[in-house]
Amino acid sequence: MHLTSINVAQPQEMPGTARGTVVSAIHKLPVSGSVMLRTKNLDGDAQGDLVAHGGRDKAVYVYATEDYAYWREQLGWEMPNHGWFGENFTIKGAASDVVGLGDVWQVAEAIVQVTEPRSPCYKLDHKMGITDFAARFARSGRVGFYLRVLREGSVEADAVVRVIERDPNGATVTALSNLRHYGEGTLEDAQRMLAVESLPDGWKAFAQKMVDKAGVRT
User: Fold this and answer.
1) Are 89 and 3 in contact (CB under 8 A)?
2) Over 80: is that where the pLDDT of 216 sits?
3) Architecture of the CATH domain 2-167
4) I need a surface site. Which of 38, 125, 177, 194 has the fewest CB within 10 A?
């Protein structure tokens, strides 16, 4: 994998959304040179809604370079820059249907861990100018995912992203996104999700409810 682009933004008012004027940092733009990746975010980046975004388990949002081509074909227009979907890292080779939750990567000097899929909201609709885009985005399975920072370090575009540890459960970002948002999956999928030790508590609680409902002892 390769880090194609690093993208950051500061929160700004975004008027005219489904909930009126809100504060968001979804309008990411690429930056050049070395950027320090810290426990909660990249230098120069911030979050407008600290309840839904940011924090240890959502320090960095990743989107795959390959998925830009998919949306260009679907929408019939070109995204003017990386960071268009609100991602901090645009990475070639990081498609949601192949990346495993709990996997540990090295990105230049930093060590990171894949934590959870994105749950897109109305702000993405507004950014794209398409009323139902968040729903289409989720349904596509191309949702991207968040990273937890295990070791802070300097990162720079065009760095090689190296997998240094794969979670043994093989739970992909897309499979778990579909399981939670659409109920598409099996009890085995929920058990695999629950077995990912590094999974954030909210996702673990969801998986546990599914397992409990099925009456299966873990």
Assistant:
1) yes
2) no
3) Beta Barrel (2.40)
4) 38
Residue-wise pLDDT tens digits, 168-190 = 998 999 999 998 888 888 888 88
157, HSE (Cβ side, Cα atoms, 13 Å): 16
Q: What is residue 99's DSSP assignment?
A: P
Burial class (CB in 10 A: 0-12, 13-18, 19+), 156: middle
Q: What is the pLDDT of residues 83-113, one digit of tens each?
A: 999 999 999 999 999 999 999 999 999 999 9
Answer whether residue 215 shows pLDDT above 70: no
Q: Quick check: helix, strand or coil at residue 73?
A: helix
Tokens of 195: 């077995």
Alpha helix positions (H), the chain: 65-75, 122-128, 133-140, 173-182, 187-194, 201-214
Which residues 6+ apart lie within 8 Å of 11 measured at CB? 23, 24, 25, 46, 47, 48
213-to-45, 66, 209, 216 alpha-carbon distances in Å: 40, 37, 6, 8
Mean pLDDT of 62-91: 96
Pick the residue with more confidence: 49 or 77? 77
